[in-house]
Amino acid sequence: MPIPMLQNSQLIYPAQPFAAIRQPGDLVNENCDSVHPLQGQVSNQQGQTYYGNDMFKNSQHFTVSNSTFIDNSITNDNLMKEFLQHTIIGAEYDSSARHPPPRCHPGTRLAIIERCKNFVVQCDGKEKTRWVVGPAGVGKSAIMQMVAEEIPADASVFLSVNGRQDGTKTFTTIAYQLAAKFEPYRQLIRNETSRDPSLLQKSLPVQFQKFIIDPFIRKPLFDSSHRFLIIIDGLDECDNPLTQVELLELISEFCIKYPASPIVWLIASRPEPHITSFFEDDSVTPSYTKEEIEIDSDEACEDVQRYLRNKLNKIKIKYPALKHKREWPSEFEFTRIATAAGGLFAYAATVVRYIGDPHYRNPAAQLRHVLEAIRAGPDDDESGRDHPMAQLDALYQRILSNIPADVMVDTRKLLLIYSDYGWPRENFRWQCNRLGLSEDTAYGAVCHLHAVLKVPTPDEADKEDLEYFHKSFADFTLNFKRSGFSRNVMDDFDQLQARTSFRIVKEVPDDMESTSSGEGIRCSDFGYLRDGPGFCDNVSLSWPGDERYQTTDDEKVKLKLYRDTMSDMCHQFGPSSKFYRSMGAFYILTTRFTSLATGFPFDQIRNSAFEQFRPRLTDLGKLMQVPLQTLDYAAICGRIDFRFMSPIGVDTDPWNPSCNHAKNEKEDVEGSQERRGWTTDFERSLSDSGGDAAHTDIPRFSIKAGKDSHWKATSGAGDYECLSCLQRLACHFIDNPDQLATVFVDSTEMCYVELSFVDPDDGVSEWRYRFFHSGPPSCFLVDA
């Protein structure tokens, strides 16, 4: 809505209009939702309604013939419901997902809030963005919340790592909120999405053009004398730094290019290097002003002290053992806490939450623990400005140290999966089932962490997830120098995830061929898994469902556990994971699928079969040698890897200069002999090979054989479909039918092939092909 006049303000306003009362004709389209007038004034302007059942209300003595009437209300409902699915759910300032939202304590942050409100109504020209910046824990989100409520904001996006971090949905989220408030804008959205239903999946620049530039500049729906406030809080919590910068680029360019724009932007973030670097660029400077929130400013310290006094006094009144005391905590104790907190609200809030923790119900003892942590911190001579999180770290260390060693084993599991490297967020019960933690064990693992974690009640554990009260604790655990929690969080999480995955997968029988019910069950974009009657019955649930929960069908939970862990195994299997790259994982991935899809790790399986696991597979009889004549050139599909190596000094080189795919130079040492050569890859997809008449004489050169699923799954994996290289391989098949190739066949009958031979011309150079062959060698079928 247009910005209301600030009341009781001592600000001096400019002479030009900046938030005028809406008059008839202000809107380009008068048929809009009622726009709120400026606060404290009255508007009798009413827009026409679009509801069909009110179209002829109170009309008499008239006739309408040969007309068609369309009630758009149902269309509107469907439009907004569909639109909502493309937004960041719960990101608006008044969303129930954020309730209760962070707010400034009464009487605190008044000056900063007033400066932000002043900027909204007084900014002019290009400078219509205010960057509110400060470190973790200073209360940026609380300040943005207060501004959003008091003005209020027309659209707001409060980003958070707790499920609201998809920055690519920022402009759809803003557009949805504007459409919900203003009928002309809603009509615009309806028209644009009807014209191009893919608009909601378009790039950020395209959406910015359609949702912001067109309705506010190119074909303005609103009079430019009105202000529209858009707030983006927690920009640094957007999941991709490149997206963060792209959002800033679009907004700053908009402000500079369209100085008459009615939109004012408030953007809050931490001073991350890429964000700071962007705002320091001279070309961006004209578009914004900066509001820096410093931890150690006098204003911040006074606000934190005011907050601490009020909250600690409430704790004192609540407990009879403290209520009779004239002073609690003592002025000395209060000063120690206030000095340690400085202007960091996260520290103060953590202290208050820790002291007043109802799970302990002993605030005097908790206060002593806080003071001990402060005394154990850095020397008083060390500047807090140099180490702004040092005191908070000391408190976090104290909280972690209270966890018994045997309990910490399970606490550690939860902290790892809720780290930045953890798996996708689900509800708390689901996460615990995946970890194998029972309800009692899970709540025992977090009972000492209520000061830093929002823990769902057991009754809500099927709907809510564990959340950090503030990201500073997550940052603390990720930093080994600060926390000592983990030397390598990524490795520790990968190891935990691998252990969890193997435990679940091993509970599902691997011999289901005789009971398979058909194609199998879908496993994301990796393919279809074998199934059978009751095949997931043995998957153990550490926290089964009961009447408290929405999901009481444990069979569905078991199936999802199996499917998700198989997806993780496919995703993680590769050279970068030392915990998944094992013979056990290889066996699982090559025996559990009925068909494969594009996401399956084909290259990783093929390379590991012929390298890391070659000796073991040979011993097991799974890696075999067959003559080329038992393979069908027409069944070769997808990417083909080729390597050529020769001793240094040998001039032979089969590279065709006309090839357009990449040639990668390579050197290695075999024994005492240095070798040099190159690698490349190309593809057999038959996209255009039939167009060259010179190749039609090669038998089966332009024919597809094997399973369609194999062709679809491997298509597009190669660098280039090179007819010259394909012709050379096909001719080798024809000319050398008795030459041996090494093969491995998986449960879908995908055959992984390695063909190695010495160059017949020079007798020393080595050629090696690795490729996929749809279907087993013909000799396998005869043996069967």
UniProtKB/TrEMBL annotation:
This is NACHT domain-containing protein. The keyword Repeat applies. It comes from the Eukaryota. InterPro entries: NACHT_NTPase, NPHP3-like_N, P-loop_NTPase. SUPFAM superfamilies: P-loop containing nucleoside triphosphate hydrolases (SSF52540). Keywords: Repeat. Residues 128-271 form the NACHT domain. PROSITE patterns: NACHT (PS50837).
